[in-house]
Design a protein that fits this description.
mainly alpha, elongated, 9 helices, about 180 residues
């Protein structure tokens, strides 16, 4: 029969081992060694399957692969990890931001907007969220909404020359919409 002391010691050893994999995974992630980061985070999750942070980190590694290798299935794996992180922590703002980027990469702008809406509803006052949603609205050719969000982003953080460019582009596109081919 195992006593309480042995159970607690075993738990602590497992947590320490998981932490080693998390630290290694983060180091590999920071060096764009995405494949090894995924291995490390997967091992950490085997030891502690209820850690939302590790799902988030592994999702970032999968997303990194999708960008570096133009690998569409990796975007889906990233979204799967982000979904799991949000099941464990429904208020995890960084995951909503990351998942919105993955949806953006798949041209699923409605889903990206939905995630950014969660970020805004959580009260982060994040100019990046408004900018991202504004660009998503631009992609959907909803220029009034795009302009409103881009202006909000600039009011929150005026030092964003790229957002200023997006705003000017949205204004131009609003005045001169691209004609759709009627055929």
């Amino acid at each position: 029969m195992t006593n309480l002391w042995d159970s607690e010691r075993s738990f602590n050893m497992s947590q320490n081992e998981a932490l080693k994999y998390i630290n290694s995974g983060n180091e590999n992630l920071s060096k764009d060694n995405f494949d090894q980061a995924i291995v490390d985070f997967t091992k950490a999750l085997e030891l502690n399957p209820n850690d939302a942070n590790v799902y988030y980190y592994r999702g970032l590694a999968h997303y990194g692969i999708s960008v570096m290798r133009n690998d569409a299935p990796s975007i889906d794996r990233a979204i799967g990890d982000y979904n799991q992180a949000l099941k464990l922590n429904p208020d995890y703002v960084e995951v909503y931001n990351a998942r919105s980027g993955a949806y953006f990469g798949k041209n699923e702008f409605d889903k990206a907007i939905e995630d950014i809406n969660h970020v805004i509803q959580l009260g982060t006052n994040d100019s990046f969220a408004y900018a991202t949603r504004g660009v998503a609205y631009m992609m959907k050719e909803e220029f009034d909404r795009a302009i409103k969000d881009l202006e909000t982003s600039l009011r929150m953080n005026p030092d964003q020359p790229d957002i200023r460019q997006h705003l000017e582009m949205a204004r131009i596109m609003q005045k001169n919409p691209i004609q759709k081919n009627p055929m």
